[in-house]
Amino acid sequence: MSETIRATRPEPPPHVSAEIKVAHAPLPKWVIGEFFGTFLLVFFGCGSVCAAVATGAQVGIFQVAIVWGLGIATAIYLTGSLSSAHLNPAVTIASAAWSRFPFRLVVPYIIVQMLGAFAAAAVLFSIFNGAIAGYEAKHGITRGAEGSEATAMVFGEYFPNPGGKALTEEARATMTPGHAFTAEMVGTAILVLVIFCSTDERNAARPQILTAATIGLTVTLVISLIGPLTMAGLNPARDLAPRIFSSLAGWKSVPFTVNGSGWLTVYIIAPIVGGLLGGGIYRVFFRAAYRV
User: Fold this and answer.
1) Does residue 23 fall inside a structural domain?
2) pLDDT digit string (tens) for 211-254?
3) What CATH number corresponds to the domain at position 191?
4) Which of 89, 103, 270, 274 lies closest to 282, judged by CA?
5) What is the pLDDT of residue 23?
6) How many Å apart are CA 119 and CA 101, to the nearest integer?
């Protein structure tokens, strides 16, 4: 079935029809948007972590954070008109709970987001595996063995941030599971609050054409603050899909054992709770205020 769009000029020349036939997309546009949007998010974001750990290309948390932010802004600009650019299960669930997003699309959206994130992890592995292996050889790291979270961190998150090194007991004592849960929850709550407020048409000060940049900058700010503590996941698909890939790519059980059940509680449940919290704050306080 073809899709009809209107010509942009007010009046077409006499020999040109005002109706232009275009090919029908091979998939629903929201699938295209969520898959490629999440792919870009993970490709740029995790790619910056790969470059930082394996090659030392980025120095300091802000350089990684700004790449994350720019990558997310780029993904939103490219896919926002296709799927509203959720790119994050926490955003999808919060949108269903507090906005008008249909519940029947929650699971399909999350599945597509996971597929996009997994595909990006696979592409990054094909690009950076040699550099990662070189880093492991140089620092005596055996992939899949104890301490290999030092390189597994380029795909999934761990607390505290390993920084390219094996986590010691002293380091672990600085970030308890409870503190990590709180950090991820609060960070995601702030992100979702910004998303909802900056896209509300009743907000007279909304950034409009700069909405994607505002959201990307918010991610940069949050990563700059809590990235040193938990690596600032804020997105269950961004964490879980690359984490699964890393387990299959040689890190074995390490991604799911280093922090115990933290892979579930801190990086999946906490962002979802945070998203619901941020959406609730928007609904109770900001949405009503914007109407005044």
Assistant:
1) no
2) 999 999 999 999 999 999 999 999 999 999 999 999 999 999 99
3) 1.20.1080.10
4) 274
5) 56
6) 26
- Whether 188 has a pLDDT exceeding 60, the answer reads yes
Query: Of 231, 239, 255, 235, which Cα lies nearest the Cα of 121?
Result: 239
Query: Angle 292-215-117 (CA atoms, 0-180°, nearest 5)?
Result: 135
Read off the amino acid at residue 246: S
Q: Tell me the backbone φ, ψ of residue 4, rounded to 5 degrees.
A: -105, 130
Do 230 and 203 touch, CB atoms closer than 8 A? no
Q: Is residue 8 part of a domain?
A: no
What total of structural domains would you count in the chain? 1
| Cα 156 from Cα 239, distance rounded (Å) | 5
Half-sphere exposure of 269 (CA within 13 A, CB side): 11
User: What's residue 92's pLDDT?
Assistant: 98
Residue carrying the six token digits 């809590």: 226
> Does residue 15 sit within a domain?
no
- Tell whether pTM > 0.85: yes
Domain ranges, residue 53: 29-291
- The pair of structure tokens assigned to 116 is 């996009």
Query: How many alpha carbons lie under 13 Å from residue 273 in its C-beta half-sphere?
Result: 13
Residue 13 lies in a domain: no
